[in-house]
Amino acid sequence: QVSLVESGGGPVQAGGSLRLSCAASGRTFSTFVMGWFRQAPGNEREFVAAIGWSASSTRYADSVKGRFTISRDNVKNTVYLKMNSLKTEDSAVYYCEADENLRRSISNNDADYDSWGRGSQVTVSS
Length: 126
Description:
Blueprint: E1 3-7, E2 10-13, E3 18-25, E4 33-39, E5 46-51, E6 58-60, E7 68-73, E8 78-83, E9 92-99, E10 115-116, E11 120-125
């Protein structure tokens, strides 16, 4: 399994921006679909965004469309999540996840992902 480490979270005021990074190591990162999921206290983990291996395909949850942008750098083995116009309801622990099954499609189902990091806390205050 690939090893994933998230960074870039922290406190931010509503309307502000953050960029999360996820550094991957241990396997062939460039062949994986990579996703971001989040989990708020008392809630199930939910899909945020994902990106195909070539970066030409992306998928977003409706709640973040137009505000968040996922990208990847296959040379640096890193995936990013740029979050703009943050809302208090975006507060959660954000997890980077890897779908290592060489799937052509981009899944929004957490069960399809095989590896994940320890998460990065994002706290948006009003």
